[in-house]
Amino acid sequence: MTEFKDLVQLRRSHRRFTGEEIDADDVKLILRAALMSPTSKGQRAWQFIVVDDRFDIERLSDAKDMGSQFMKDAPLAVVVLGDPVQNDCWVEDGTIAAVSMQYQAEELGLGSCWIQMRGRGLSDGTDADTVIRGILDIPGNLNVLCVIAIGHKADERKPQDEEKLKWETVHLGKY
User: Fold this and answer.
1) Who's near 85: CB < 8 A, 6+ residues apart?
2) Contact between residue 76 and residue 25 where contact means Cβ atoms under 8 Å apart
């Protein structure tokens, strides 16, 4: 098992994937990480839609004008949802779950990339939430936060450079 300090240095966003499918046990571990992530008041009020149908993934990749087209090559996409009426921290809780999935994917040797959907859309004014809702039959009470594209890495990325950490943004005690 990779030590966490190394995992955070190694995890990078990957936007190129091989065509290889993801093992079902690995998918389960990735979802387990999301389901175990901390939430406000222990609500665990997020929802996840696991999409492995190539046609649906391609349609999801067109939910916004920029920054999602690479998803077409991913064998797996996990849509992260929340109910803002049930949980006023749905964005934060969904974010923690999404990042937990990304670290688990990295630990398994898989690549991932967060695709922001909340507040994004198409040039014709259609928001990504509406597009995704139509593709996946999402109930009206749930909002789309993001999609996590996951797959076997088709590229190699260098680890985070320890020398480029911005320690000057860390303040002790007071600003």
Assistant:
1) 141
2) no
